[in-house]
Amino acid sequence: MSDRFHQPIDAAKVPRFAGHATFMRLPAVSSAAGLDIALVGIPWDGGTTNRAGARHGPREVRNYSSLMRSNHHVFRTEPYKVANIADVGDVAVNPIDLLDGLKLIESGISEIVAQGALPLSVGGDHLTTLPVLRAVASKGPLGLIHFDAHSDTNDTYFGNNPYTHGTPFRRAIEEKLLDPQRVVQIGIRGSIYEPHEHDWALQQGIRIIYMEEFAERGPNAVMAEARSIVGDLPTYVTFDIDSIDPSMAPGTGTPEIGGFTTREAQQMLRLLDGLNLVGADVVEVSPPFDLGGMTSIVGATMVFELMCVMARQVERNRK
To answer: What class is the 2-318 domain?
Structure first.
């Protein structure tokens, strides 16, 4: 089976700095047909309210993903031998029409899902997760494991605008894309607009694990609880790069000090292994604010970690 799967370019034959930039140096394909996992870019930041630039994230994450090798040293997994994975390019976007942009993203991800592949997307601001959820939750509300500095469950911004990168999970619950009793948010921290900003989320049943609690309990205990919350039902994973401390990932639109170390983030993503994942994303990498590619390499690494977990799921489901 594995001899028919797509393989990365061999760095011993073509150096990492050469050739076309694709996710993990995998082939660029025009369709997700025949794939198990579709790596896809969403170059759109139409929901950003302050420091724009995440639209450039997919391109730079592609560049830095050339540093990822083919084996996971902890899992001992060779993802490209157990799952068929490729770069399907970027979904169509509209940078000047927010509502049309959301429709285009949903349409692009829906096509991937219809072709039987798990979408692993790179954004783009966090509003991109809303149309992705619209595409992957067609069979009913999903669970969600959400790594972030911010809850993103606000209602409206700038009058009555319901669609920004601070509102996607409120909209997703209202649209019944998510089961709030199976949603856990990890790493929430930083100043907020008003004292009761998170009340709505808590009232819906979302489990918010603030950074202070995470620091006391540690990754293993927190992820054990997260796994118990989502159970074995279909679950989506969303990873906002600003969950990482800006000393390690400065290139993001809304940085918050006091975040995860990259090692803690890797450990938590590895503890997703065995869950019933229907897709995942890494969002809010904003290269204009980056320093020496620090954030793009973190983003690429988190994509690799998620990809390996998803590949192991594909392998189990084949047996």
So the answer is: alpha beta
